[in-house]
Amino acid sequence: MKYRVRHLTEYQYAAPVTLCYNIAHLLPRNTDRQRIKSTRISVSPTPAYQRSRRDYFGNTSFYFSVQEPHEKLVIDVSSDIEVSRSNVVGALDTSPTCRDSIALLKRSERPEYIEIKEFQLSSPMIKKSKELADFGWPLFAADKPLLRAAMDLTTKIFDEFTFDPTSTTVATPLAEVIENKRGVCQDFAHFQVGVLRSLGFPARYVSGYIETLPPPGQERLVGADASHAWVSLFIPELGWVDFDPTNNSMPDDQHIITAWGRDYSDITPLQGVIFDGGDSQSLSVSVDVARRSEQ
Amino acid sequence: MQDQKQGLPSGKPLFSDNSEIASWYQTPDQAFDEVFLNPGESKPHWRYFVDSMNRAGLTQFADRQRKAQDILRDDGATYNRTENPLQTSTWSLDPFPYLLGSEEWTRLEAAMVERSQLMNLILKDIYGDRELIRRGIVPAEVIYGHPGFLRQCQGVSLPGENQLLMHAMNMVRGLDGEFTVVGDRTQAPTGSGYALENRRVLSRVLPDMFRDSNVHRLSHYFYRLRQTLTSLGRRLNPNPRVVVLTTGANSSSHFEQAYLSNYLGYSLVQGTDLTVRNGRVWLKALGGLQQVDVILRRVDDVYCDQVELSSGGRGGVPGLLEVVREGNVIVANPLGSGILETPALLKFLPQIAQHFLGHDLAVKSVESWWCGDTDDYAYVTHNLSNLIIKPAVRRDNSRSIYGRELTEEQKAQLLVRIARNPHLYVAQSYLKASHSPTWQQGKIVSCPTIIRTFTVSNLDSYFAMPGGLARVTKQHAAQEYVDTRHEVKSKDIWVLSDAPETYFSLIDEHQDILTDIDLQNNLPSRVIENLFWMGRYSERAETVIRLLRTVFHQLQDSDPLPEASRDVLLKALSVQTGSLPGFCAEGNAAIKNADAELISLIIDGNRPGSVKANINSMLNCSEEVREMLSADTRKIVNDLRDDMGRLEKLFAKGMPTAPQEALDDIVTSLLALSGLNHESMMRGIDWRFQAIGRRVERAIQTATLLQSTLTEGLSAYDMQRVLESVLLSVEALISFRRRYRTRYDVYYGLDLLMLDETNPRSLFYQIDALNKHTMRLPRSTTSARAMSHELKVLSKSLADMQLSDLHELSGLSEKTNRREKLDELMQTLIHQLEQYTGFISDKYFDHMTKPHQIFSPNWELEA
Fold first, then answer.
1. Where does the record locate the signal sequence feature (chain A) (predicted)?
2. Is B446 strand, coil or helix?
3. Burial code of B727-764, b = ≥16 C-beta within 10 A, e = fewer?
4. In the predicted model, what is the mean pLDDT of chain A?
5. Contact indicator for B319, A65 with CB cutoff of 8 Å
6. Residue A174's pLDDT is what?
7. B132: which residues sit within 8 A by CB, 6+ positions away?
8. Which of B132, B144, B280, B305 to mutate to test the interface with A (most CBs of A within 10 A)?
9. Do A274 and B851 touch (CB under 8 A)?
């Protein structure tokens, strides 16, 4: 499937910001199933300094610094992306069982398995806990294929959690999400990663977009999409497989990946510092995921 | 050696049998003795020193010890400074050096270099291919689970082989006489500067012993350090600018940071003194932005850049890492090197050494267990009493836990904590440290000793500092390990050579001589601002104390002070200190109980304007600029701190019998400070700003004093007493009497205090001086001809005074019975002086606000 994604971020400050340094994780990356045909980022006011590079996790990070006073900062990204279908979706019983997966992960001396350990540990925003493990434990029976168990977990989160954009912010701690069982995609993804890691499985946090289709008979609204987040689980012999707890699905060719990391803090869309700018700022984000006709 | 030791009964004297010293020194039980082979027989490399000691005797040694502490105090050598500037802890130096013989040193030196080389390889691997993890030599969690593993630094490297530029090792010597490393410091190793200060002090108090012992010089190490930094910096700039990045005056080792930056000739800067623009790092200097090429950091790496690293605002430079990444600034040690400090690595070092070097390390590390490993975890839970538990993540405040001191309940609690995050805990076995003689309250006691040694990158290898820092715990000798929770004393390490060392010059031929302009460009605006405020606060303190002293004098005078005069003076005091309402409160409540208010104006540090608050502020400013202060100035600053302490104690008990005399010491110290300022400081830009601070403060204070005391219409006698008091407080009473005899008239008072340009305390004198200073400040080139705002406002003030009519000023208004014209003029002058300081501040000081993070999650891993 081919897409054109446009992601527009606007910061409006109460007073001029005199200087800012930012790192954006807004440019999509290449993956096994995803090719970036073209991508373009423009920042206004024009940065005095900017660099694009590959970060630790292989994502594209974009560093820029604006050195002139500005009350408004606009970051406009548009990319043409081609996504191919997943061959795992719908084949839930093709994976090793939970027991075998754990054994394979432990025993294997393969270097890439050792590196995967990074995603089995706690990370800045996701602390492993018994509580998280207990949530998923009943679903991960020893003989059950891991892929099916993980999908069941995805469904359980989808069923038990309430989507509520007013309940959390980007910095809401996981403990609070667990307590209230409310949140947005980011919180659900953190939660699921936390459950998987607490059970001993390597899991990472994925950010990106999802193509939304208008209700039948209605026009698609431009710019009404949003950035999205889901999880990826490492399954021995299969590799990384994605799950989307917000939509109770396994991402296929309607999910477009921007970046992945241990959690949100590794791939914050925009991080950095500003000087001055008054005591308030408003942020508006508009995302548009448009399907391009196949040629 | 071991057999001999174990055969010894404890408590037996060890120095030569008939000496006075002999009776004090106790044999350590079951520990390696640094000095003696057996009773009365010192090791060959100690022989000369022990003999000299015995000749000198205990009393003389006590004197030398005192002298050493005096020098340290005068140098302001502190450690663990607290927020309270009146409380400092002087660095503690033991008068006994720690001696290393030349053969022993040769072996140790090689082992240190080898260890640094290995640490360097590990660092390169961690931020490179991570072969150690891939091959399973180091468990992934040790690195991945450590918040000091800075993923942002992946692939960032310095030119050349050596990434680790400085390395320090803590070692103890076991019963077999062999050294064991108990910890590595690779972040921003503390101690080399203290070692240098120790050496300076000890070579002064033990000059003969030092000279005749052929001690290796420490300066070689610093020469290498400077060479390394310069050669790295030359890739960016033929004459690189190197700065020392400090966390500021409240850092526990701020003394060392200031001391080293002076010794090495680098500017001492804080994070806010630097700024990143156009992909480079710049120093915000008085002369504008100056490019920085090398940063010797004393700030932990995770705090170095608020953009990419932790948000914990401890003096980082936003954007720094990106400049490092682009290779446009050198940071030493490199960002990310802190992870090498994790004690978890110690367990794996033997295998790592085998992997990288193909052989074992010459000096082993302390036996360690990493709780992230199942077997180790089981061992630790069963042997807690015999282990020291350390957090795998070293922080400023992290403490070791001594298993054997825990109650059963505490042990259980600790095990719960470990179980929660096993990979964050490491256990080490107790090591019986060697003992060395230590001076303790007039006695020589044998104490467990730990040494810290240093290496510095030297092209493709490492150079070991021939010396270092030994530390002993001040406690009973029965303790066989060094426990740094207790009070610790340091020792100078003397590496002995067989022959006197040949002199070698540390002058770097390649370095350009700096001009005044260069110096100006090296001075951070913050330093200038602090000097300015140091001048203002010391002047402000002096004015207040002088006025207080006068009030005390007048209140106790044999001629009782009339009520009206008293009220004017007390109210003036409240106005002068800015602590209103105070004596100016309605109904004169405070005046009726004047003592309480007066005491509070002296010792209440929370009251802005009080003597203590002013002295505190002054001391804080002086700490911020300590590297700029001469030795004599630091001595006076220390005196001031002591004076204030005494004053506080005295007045805390109520009004003392001679309050006026009690204030004399502090006035003398303040005068000494301004005298030094005037007589011994080079007339550089730093001096000028301090002088401006003093002048502008004195001008404002004088105008305020004239306004608050002389505007009120009083009876002739009452007025006389007030005028007399004012003259007394500004030290002009004698001149006044000589000139005007007994004509206590406001007219003459103003003549002397306002207009007389020969009176160094007159208002005119201050503003005229300000005018001269301001004309010599660096000016922006664009406005070379036009008169600057700050000069205009001064010229107007001078004219306002010159054009005023003394008769008019001293005349009373019939309507209000006040000197309205005088009030008005003083008000104008005060306003203009405040405008002036505003102009100066806008033009020369840094006004960048604090950075805000646009996204800041909770980064810290719980430990």
1. none
2. strand
3. bbbbebbeebeeeeeeebebebbbbbbbbbeebebbbb
4. 91
5. yes
6. 86
7. B122, B125, B126, B138, B143, B348, B352, B355
8. B144
9. yes
Q: In angstroms, what is the C-alpha Rg of chain B?
A: 32
Give the pLDDT score at B395: 76
pLDDT tens digits, B384-411: 999 999 999 887 767 788 898 899 999 9
Is the Cβ–Cβ distance between A234 and A205 less than 8 Å? Answer: no
Nearest Cα residue to B182 out of B408, B412, B446, B448: B448
Residue A219, beta-bridge partner list: none
Closest chain A residue by Cα to residue B319: A21
CB contact under 8 A, A49 and B151: no
**Among A43-47, A157-161, B628-632, B847-851, which stretch is predicted with the lowest mean pLDDT?**
B847-851
The position carrying tokens 């502490």 is B69
- Which two three-digit tokens encode residue B287? 């002369």
- List, in sequence order, every residue forming a beta bridge with B284; answer none if it has no partner: B289
Residues of B in contact with A268 (CB under 8 A): 855
Tell me whether residues A21 and B326 touch, CB distance under 8 A.
Answer: no
> Per the CB < 8 Å rule, is A23 touching B308?
yes
Is the preceding peptide bond at B333 cis, omega within 30 degrees of 0? yes
Domain range A92-266, CATH class:
alpha beta
Q: B145: nearest CA in chain A?
A: A121
> Is B152:B321 a contact under the CB 8 Å cutoff?
yes
Pairwise CB contact (< 8 Å): A171 & B140: no
Among candidates B141, B307, B859 on the partner chain, residue whose Cβ is nearest the Cβ of A23: B307
- Element spanning A63, H or E: strand A60-66
The ipTM value here is 0.94
Which of these CATH numbers, 1.10.3860.10, 2.60.40.2250, 2.160.10.10, 3.90.550.10, describes A2-83+268-292?
2.60.40.2250
Closest chain A C-alpha to B114 CA, distance in angstroms = 28
Task: Look at A21 and B277 and tell me if their CB atoms are within 8 Å.
Answer: no
DSSP codes of every residue in B271-339: GGGEEEETTEEEEEETTEEEEE-EEEE-S-GGGS-TTTS----SS--TTHHHHHHTTSSEEESPTTGGG
Q: pTM for the full model? A: 0.88
Report the length, in residues, of chain A: 295
Q: Which of residues 205-264 of A touch B (CB under 8 A)?
A: 264
Judged by CB atoms closer than 8 Å, whether chains meet at B276 and A65 is answered as yes
Element (H, E) at B126: helix B102-126
A42 touches chain B (CB under 8 A): no
Alpha carbon distance B199, A275 (integer Å)? 45
Residue B788: pLDDT band with limits 50, 70, 90: confident
DSSP three-state, residue B342: coil
Q: Kindly report the nearest CA distance between residue A271 and chain B, in angstroms.
A: 6
Chain A contact set for B277 (CB, 8 A): 48, 65, 67
Most A CBs within 10 A among B141, B277, B852, hence the mutation to make, goes to: B852
CB contact under 8 A, B130 and A115: yes
**Is the Cβ pair A51, B276 closer than 8 Å?**
no
State how far the Cα of B25 lies from the Cα of B35, in Å rounded to an integer. Answer: 11
Closest CA to B616 of B595, B655, B576, B643: B643
CB contact under 8 A, A265 and B857: yes
